[in-house]
Design a protein that fits this description.
Number of domains: 2
CATH architecture of the largest domain: Sandwich
Oligomer: single chain
Shape: globular
Distance between the termini: 33 Å
Largest sheet: 8 strands, antiparallel
Order of helices and strands: EEEEEEHEHHEHHHHHHH
Number of strands: 8
CATH class of the largest domain: Mainly Beta
Helix content: 40-55%
CATH superfamily of the largest domain: Regulatory protein AraC
Structural class: alpha+beta
Length: 247
């Protein structure tokens, strides 16, 4: 039988893990709560129905939102080579969830069985499209100034032209930079930022209608549509599952 190193951790709301690297790749599955992974390229968000992949030797740090139970599974370099070369977030299928829970549980496993299960996990991830709740970080100083303003106040409803005047850049220039540097439009980026903040507010127990209002959506329907497009379920369903997991 093989006893594994510590593979579970409990984190309180707002608790962080300082920047660090891993010799092997690492899968982090928040069985409850929300976990963010941040690098110099941006931030990835994993609610309780996602798993985060971090490749070997990739500096990053984490922060928990809500009481977060994290399951951790190391993936050796040879096996991890089949996964993305930068952090990614994947949806958790029923099979993937059960395999992760067994691998990170208290039960002692035969070495061959452990490796077989770990292979199943990797195969499931390879067959699952990445579902990144990923907010890229800009390099251009003008674009970073705009995104910093929105990070400070996600509910800010200023147009790109108004934000441009605040940082000394034209709307046309900023629009181009959002596409070339971040691979999305200004409106897509701001919507994703708000959805990330919504995940945190919902895990803290805030009502859906209040979350929509506090984060700047014009009406709850717009919020529900944007949230569902990114997360794959309505905010109400997501909040209900959070309550069920904590019972």
């Amino acid at each position: 039988m093989q006893r594994v190193a510590k593979s579970q951790a409990s984190m309180t709301h707002g608790q962080g893990v300082a920047p660090h690297r891993h010799e092997n790749g690492l899968l982090l599955y928040p069985a409850a709560g929300v976990l963010t992974t941040t690098t110099d390229r941006g931030t990835w968000v994993a609610p309780a129905n996602r798993v985060t992949w971090t490749p070997p030797d990739f500096e990053h740090h984490h922060r928990a939102y809500g009481d977060t139970e994290v399951r951790m599974l190391e993936v050796p370099a040879g096996l991890g080579d089949r996964l993305p070369g930068e952090p990614a977030v994947f949806a958790v299928s029923a099979l993937l969830r059960e395999a992760l829970l067994v691998l990170t549980g208290e039960r002692e496993l035969r070495a061959a069985y452990r490796e077989a299960l770990r292979q199943v996990v990797v195969e499931e991830l390879i067959d699952s499209p990445s579902q990144d709740l990923y907010l890229p970080r800009p390099v251009d100083d003008r674009l970073r100034a705009v995104t910093d303003l929105l990070h400070a106040d996600p509910a800010d409803s200023s147009t790109l032209a108004q934000l441009g005047r605040a940082v000394g850049a034209s709307e046309r220039t900023l629009s181009r930079l959002f596409q070339t540097e971040l691979g999305m439009s200004f409106h897509q980026w701001r919507s994703l930022l708000r959805v990330q903040h919504a995940l945190v507010r919902l895990v803290e127990g805030e009502a859906v209608i209040d979350t929509a209002a506090r984060l700047g959506w014009s009406n709850p329907t717009s919020f529900i549509e944007a949230f569902t497009a990114v997360v794959g379920q309505t905010p109400g369903r997501y909040r209900a599952e959070l309550r069920h997991a904590s019972d």
